[in-house]
Design brief:
The structure is a single chain. By secondary structure, this protein is mainly beta. It has a single domain, classed as Alpha-Beta Complex (Nucleoside Triphosphate Pyrophosphohydrolase), CATH 3.90.79. The strands form two sheets. Strands 3, 4, 5, 6, 7, 8 and 9 form a seven-stranded mixed sheet that branches. The longest helix is centred in the C-terminal third of the chain and has 8 residues. The radius of gyration is 17 Å and the shape is globular. This is NDP-hexose 2,3-dehydratase. One of its GO terms (molecular function) is lyase activity. It holds the Pfam family Hexose_dehydrat. It comes from Bacteroides cellulosilyticus.
Length: 158
């Protein structure tokens, strides 16, 4: 199999590529608490995690797996999908790990909620400041790749 990357041909590839069946959605919900932006993260258990849990975006799922029943959907998915206007700080399609996944894309979003959104969260969710997230970025295997991709997008919001 020959793969063309940036007008260069790669004559061999020793790692199999996985073709995706559907697009993903990854989103952080952001809330200003006491004047400081906080990101809602979730502790997520996934196959292949080095440790048992990693910190993931508020919403991380495949769009083809969204149940029709709202009560069966991942927490906060509807809030993210129904957000609009000034709530949406960032919304783009981004490639997912091109060395492993063939043409896989995620819809990456940052969605801001207002003061009426509750501070109390479900069990696996927590509010974290950007400073706290940066502390976890210093170590491998604490923040998953989707979280890292979304945090990298913050440089483009200024």
């Amino acid at each position: 199999m020959k793969v063309t990357i940036s007008n260069r041909e790669v004559s061999s590839w020793c790692q199999p590529l996985i073709q995706p069946m559907q697009q993903g959605i990854c989103a952080f919900i952001i809330k200003k608490i006491n004047g400081v932006y906080h990101f809602m993260v979730q502790a997520k258990l996934e196959c292949g995690n080095f440790d048992v849990m990693e910190l993931a975006p508020t919403v991380q799922c495949l769009t083809g797996n969204i149940p029709s029943s709202r009560s069966a959907r991942p927490p906060f998915l509807d809030l993210v999908l129904e957000s609009s206007g000034s709530q949406v700080l960032y919304d783009t399609l981004q490639s997912e790990e091109g060395g492993r996944f063939y043409h896989e894309q995620n819809r990456n979003m940052l969605v801001e909620v207002d003061d009426s959104f509750p501070l109390e969260l479900p069990e696996r969710y927590r509010w974290m400041t950007l400073g706290q997230i940066y502390q976890f970025l210093r170590f491998n295997n604490y923040l998953n790749i989707q979280s890292r991709s979304l945090i990298a997008a913050l440089n483009y919001l200024s």
